[in-house]
Amino acid sequence: MGASGLYAGKLVQEDEVRHGGIPWTLLRSTQFHEFVPMSIKAASVGPLVLVPTMDTQPVAAKEVAAALVDAAEAGPKGRLPDLGGPRTEHLKGLVAAYLAKTRQKKLIVPLRVPGPMGKAMRNGGLIPAPGSAVGRQTFQEWLDAIGAA
User: Bridge partners of 49?
Assistant: First the structure.
């Protein structure tokens, strides 16, 4: 996958950590469940919400936080297995579920993002590889736990 934008910056940061001369641990995670409402807010234009065609495996932020605490307490271990949520989902379906739960009336407009990043989004390039760590809370369980807006 060609790195771009945010992910390119993250790779530079990781490289600095790896070669910084200090023992380190690195944990990558997929998007948090909260990525969905953030995406809706950022990509809404009036009654429309632009939603990239994307497969994702969202994970609970609290599970990532717990994994980071465990990693910090365990001491430097290098690169840990990536952490993703328990299910691969289509972003459009997650957005629709969130909009319904929060009673927001918006028309979802699918957006095919061009370039290497768009291809990765569509073809599972942002999904953790087999052997990655898997969180427990599904997006639907997270959604059921939040109150309606």
Answer: 44, 108
